[in-house]
Recover the amino acids of this structure.
């Protein structure tokens, strides 16, 4: 294990940004809305497909994302500012609006929109690249896999969680996650601006 993961604070700084960017509890009401009329077996297949899709795209993006950026001449600071602004927009969007926009998409719902872009989208892509400044690719991949596993558990237990937390509870958690993600986005923009010296 590298020196970066020796302290609990460093582990949290690796895990939490991806957790906040994925926001599985915020995605939960949308998942329930899109799968409520489906059988348990179909629901499980959609959940498994969404996690596999998100994992494949996220893991491929870890090594290929920076290569794509360098190929078009972008520096880390450029992406930090642009990515921070994009993450800020994602964090500030209204989750209810997203649900209304996506409620009619039943076919392939596990891949789009649950897997991409709700679970792994612009905020996660930006976070994956920015984490490379502090952590190795395998540490980031491990954090991504752990976050996806947590999301898989949440989605598999979605009916129970919705009964326990209720719609209001999931919205409160989602809004708190959005607030944390907004603060993280501001930090990304700040660090990006200072890198232009």
């Amino acid at each position: 294990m590298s020196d970066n993961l020796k302290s609990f604070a460093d582990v949290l700084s690796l895990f939490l940004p991806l957790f906040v960017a994925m926001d599985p509890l915020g995605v939960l009401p949308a998942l329930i809305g899109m799968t409520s009329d489906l059988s348990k077996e179909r629901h499980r297949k959609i959940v498994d497909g969404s996690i596999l899709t998100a994992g494949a795209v996220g893991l491929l993006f870890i090594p290929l994302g920076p290569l794509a950026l360098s190929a078009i001449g972008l520096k880390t600071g450029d992406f930090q500012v642009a990515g921070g602004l994009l993450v800020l927009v994602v964090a500030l969007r209204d989750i209810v609006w997203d649900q209304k926009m996506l409620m009619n998409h039943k076919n392939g719902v596990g891949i789009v929109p649950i897997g991409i872009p709700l679970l792994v989208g612009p905020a996660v892509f930006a976070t994956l690249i920015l984490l490379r400044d502090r952590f190795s690719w395998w540490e980031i991949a491990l954090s991504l896999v752990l976050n996806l596993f947590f999301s898989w558990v949440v989605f598999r237990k979605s009916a129970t969680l919705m009964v326990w937390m209720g719609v209001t509870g999931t919205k409160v958690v989602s809004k708190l996650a959005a607030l944390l993600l907004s603060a993280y986005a501001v930090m990304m923009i700040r660090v990006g601006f200072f890198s232009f010296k």
Observations:
- The two ends are 33 Å apart (CA to CA).
